[in-house]
Write a structure and sequence with these properties.
Strand content: 15-25%
Oligomer: single chain
Low-confidence stretches: 114-126, 291-323, 882-890
Helix content: 40-55%
CATH architecture of the largest domain: Alpha-Beta Barrel
Largest sheet: 8 strands, antiparallel
């Protein structure tokens, strides 16, 4: 067959035309079709085809141009990898050679490119002649080809495919023709690179568009549930899934997890609760951290399968790799191959889902959920050039290129690196939005809630009251606001420490919360104060039972640190609209009522009334006058005798402080002592009491009275003073009193605030001869282990136990225990508040050493007590004891 070749100018024009047409095309299939058509017309060849390799070594004809019917079409036919061995492909890459085969001559000619020519644009006569492999000759003959020319097509330094020119008859090509085709093959490589860049740009544009859509959805003003549903649907669509799930773990302020579903689902409603699914998620999180400097998006399907199936064999990670968890994809077959997930696999087998992409929403160990995308299985038809038989191709050359259709059913779709990158980016966007909302929610929660009790704080409580007032206005109802303050909480806090105090507050909050009705609200106002909102009240009488229930709930014992505690509270209440119609007024009046309840003796409740404000003003005036009382010498001391229960003789006195107010007269200690504690005036007042008692001892001695023990109370604040011992010694030196006749009384709760410091201070006092008494014993929280180390002389039984000692078996048991403890420790015992002969007889029977109380005498002025002692009064007989005016001389 004689073919007339074009002249040189025609060749150049043709090269320019073909190159222009190739470059004008944007889509790769169009580029390849144009290239084959133009080359076929240029060379007038029988068949020009472009063959593309797959990753597994096989390939397919992706473009073809045929002249008439001289050779059959091979378009879209697949060829097994054995048809073009790997060594042949490597040969094309290393030498970039074209190969010309003449079947009739059984020769092949290879033309290489000069290694010294870096441009690679000129061919050098690097010609080699070789005999053709018989198998290859047979292969071409079967195909109907007598001559062929093959050019390699390279992309990114790899063999992308082949440009093959076939003729039915023997054919000779001129070097200029071959050089032009070679240049055209290079143009195809350039076009492939451009098309790849275009595809990549489109991918990036699509990914950016998808992420913008996801971001807009995550920050749109729709309800959160709707937002997450739309995000899931967008993710499923972008990743070409048939269904998906978005699982969000519960935040600290939420009760339950959130689950959103879209499209096809496995046959398991609560997938996230299935133990094997939880194991799978944890396995994915661990296995993704087993990659050493590998990004999961770069792993092949087979590599990722190995990481998933055998994560323990993977290498350890660097810190950079564990900062985030990558998407992980797996197939149904992978699940079925692992016995650990066979139950889960059975659930998926019943659906059409065959491939799963799992994206943990996690960063640096903070896991907030999981996004899962499903893909259905699919069927694949592959047209093979001749039946694909796994035999040794060189030993058994192909006998036929007859088309054979292979059908593969229910295949699991793969996930491309672009899919994985997009999935990872979507997951990170969802993670960031979730965490941002959780941080904002936590900040709002912390701004409106107490961190210790998790109750609303005063900010949120005020808003709740405002809403309740607005609702009550339209419903014609009353709203109650209550202030509740724990009694003696400071004693517990100071004595046992803030850890126990905090736990007590938490338990109080729980107990109060159980008393609330539907619609009520409880808040922690601060410290040991709680506020309550009590809406939907029909009348003022409704508030009383609620208040009693609250106080009764706190009367039951609390158990802290294996100890039993009792605590009471004072409750103040204000009602809208009578006591105020706005938040500020109601809170102020409820607070004033609470302080009035405390002044009434605590452990009670008080409704607000108008006079409370005037009483509060009086209280402020009293505080003002208290600051001036010491310098104006308005304080006086009275003395109550202490009697020996064996001889009924006066063996001591207790100094009791009294305030003679110039306008109000004598003010009870219960009114001003707590005020002095609050205003921290108790220390200078206590120092005055100690000095005055010592001076009074010296005055009595000048009158001829024998020395007598004087007991002086020290407050907890006084006892904390670092120079207390030095202060007492100076007063003794100043007054000239024998330390043996001074008795310092310290309460049990004050002694327990700092046991080691208490022991050291008391030892210093006792070393100089001062007597030590523990006052109010039994009302504090001391332990026997601590008591035995205190250098005490006397235990004073609190009058609260003496008052009902003959009627209440519990009080009797406590008194008996204290007296027995004193006897066991070699201490004197003194009972306070003895008011009747029955109490006296009981105490004497138990072996109590001393007593004081109205049965013997009320407190008296210094002159009255001097008269009593000068008359040598004793309480001679238990049977003849009468009130003070009936005292008999001894």
């Amino acid at each position: 067959m004689k073919i007339v070749a074009p002249d040189t100018s025609d060749r150049e024009n043709l090269l320019h035309t073909i190159t222009s047409r190739i470059r004008q095309s944007l889509e790769l299939p169009e580029i390849l079709d144009t290239a084959t058509l133009e080359i076929q017309k240029f060379l007038r060849a029988d068949r020009v085809k472009i063959y593309q390799f797959s990753e597994d070594g096989s390939g397919a004809v992706v473009a073809e141009s045929i002249q008439g019917d001289r050779l059959p079409s091979l378009l879209h036919l697949h060829f097994p990898a054995a048809d073009i061995p790997s060594e042949a492909r490597q040969h094309f890459i290393q030498r970039r050679q074209r190969v010309i085969v003449d079947v009739a001559a059984q020769l092949k000619t290879t033309h290489g490119i000069s290694d010294s020519d870096p441009t690679h644009h000129r061919l050098r006569p690097d010609v080699r002649y070789n005999t053709v492999d018989p198998c290859h000759l047979e292969y071409l003959k079967t195909m109907g080809v007598q001559s062929s020319v093959v050019f390699p097509i390279l992309h990114q330094e790899k063999l992308w495919g082949l440009l093959a020119i076939h003729n039915r008859d023997s054919r000779h090509f001129s070097d200029s023709d071959l050089q032009i085709v070679h240049l055209l093959a290079d143009q195809i490589s350039i076009a492939i690179a451009q098309a790849s860049l275009l595809v990549e740009a489109r991918h990036h544009a699509f990914q950016e568009q998808t992420l913008n859509q996801i971001s807009q959805l995550l920050h749109c003003p729709l309800p959160l549930g709707r937002v997450y549903q739309l995000v899931l649907e967008a993710a499923v669509k972008a990743l070409e899934g048939v269904g998906g799930r978005l699982y969000i773990t519960p935040a600290s302020t939420e009760a339950t997890a959130q689950i959103y579903v879209d499209g096809v689902q496995p046959d398991l409603e609560n997938l996230e609760l299935h133990d094997q699914w939880e194991t799978l998620i944890n396995r994915v999180r661990v296995s993704s951290q087993k990659q050493d400097n590998l990004n999961r998006a770069t792993l092949t399907w087979q590599q990722q399968s190995q990481v998933f199936l055998h994560p323990d064999n993977a290498q350890s990670t660097t810190p950079e790799n564990i900062t985030r968890v990558h998407p992980h994809f797996f197939t149904l077959e992978m699940l079925e191959a692992n016995p650990q997930y066979q139950k889960l696999a059975a659930m998926f087998r019943q659906s059409s889902i065959r491939s799963i992409l799992l994206i943990p929403l996690e960063f640096q160990g903070t896991f907030v959920g999981c996004l899962t995308i499903f893909r259905n299985g699919y069927d694949l038809e592959v047209r093979w050039a001749g039946k694909h038989i796994a035999d040794a191709r060189h030993a058994h050359p192909r006998r036929s290129f007859e088309e054979w259709l292979e059908v593969r059913q229910d295949l699991a779709p793969a996930w491309s690196p672009e899919d994985l990158w997009l999935a990872q980016s979507i997951g990170m966007h969802v993670y960031m939005a979730l965490m941002q909302r959780r941080v904002e929610s936590m900040m709002r929660y912390q701004a409106s809630h107490d961190p210790l009790t998790a109750l609303p704080n005063r900010v949120l409580f005020a808003e709740q009251v405002a809403l309740a007032l607005a609702d009550a206005y339209y419903c014609d109802e009353m709203v109650g606001v209550a202030f509740l303050d724990l009694d003696r909480f400071k004693t517990i806090n100071d004595t046992l420490g803030h850890t126990i105090g905090d736990e007590l507050l938490r338990q109080v909050a729980v107990r109060l919360h159980k008393c609330l009705r539907e619609g009520d609200s409880l808040a922690r106002w601060g410290g040991d104060e709680f506020t309550l909102l009590l809406p939907h009240l029909k009348s003022a009488e409704d508030i009383g039972p609620i208040a009693k229930q609250l106080l009764a709930a706190l009367s039951e014992p609390f158990f802290l640190d294996a100890q039993e505690f009792y605590i009471t509270a004072s409750l103040g209440l204000a009602l809208s609209p009578y006591d105020g119609e706005d938040v500020g007024t109601l809170l102020k009046h409820a607070d004033a009522a609470m302080h009035q309840a405390k002044r009434q003796g605590k452990n009670t409740f008080q409704l607000y009334f108008e006079e409370i404000n005037s009483r509060a003003l009086e209280y402020l005036a009293l505080e003002r006058d208290l600051h001036r009382a010491l310098e104006r010498q308005e304080f006086v001391l009275h003395y109550q005798p202490q009697v020996n229960l064996r001889t009924y003789e006066v063996v001591g006195v207790e100094a009791l402080l009294r305030w003679n107010h110039p306008q109000l007269g004598q003010i009870a200690p219960g009114q001003f002592i707590p005020l002095a504690e609050e205003t921290e005036l108790i220390c200078p007042i206590g120092e005055w009491v100690l000095r005055e008692a010592c001076y009074q001892q010296r005055r009595w001695q000048r009158l001829g009275l024998p020395p007598i023990h004087i007991a002086v109370n020290l407050s907890a604040n006084q006892f904390k003073q670092p120079d207390l011992v030095h202060q007492i010694l100076l007063i003794l030196e100043e007054t000239g009193i024998d330390p043996n006749y001074l008795e310092i009384e310290i309460t049990e709760s004050a002694a327990m605030q700092n046991v080691e410091s208490t022991i050291m201070t008391l030892n210093q006092l006792r070393d100089v001869g001062i007597q030590i008494a523990m006052d109010d014993f039994g009302t504090g929280y001391s332990s026997l282990n601590a008591i035995k180390h205190f250098p005490l002389n006397t235990l004073k039984i609190d009058q609260s136990f003496v008052r009902e000692v003959c009627q209440d078996p519990n009080d009797a048991a406590i008194a008996r225990t204290v007296i027995a403890l004193g006897q066991g420790l070699g201490l004197q015992t003194l009972a306070e508040g003895v008011e009747c002969k029955d109490q006296l007889r009981f105490l004497r029977m138990l072996g109590c050493d001393r007593a004081q109380g109205h049965l013997f005498s009320k407190s008296m002025s210094p002159s009255e007590f001097a008269t009593l002692m000068l008359n040598r009064v004793s309480f001679f007989s238990c049977q003849s004891i009468q009130p003070h005016k009936q005292f008999r001389s001894g």
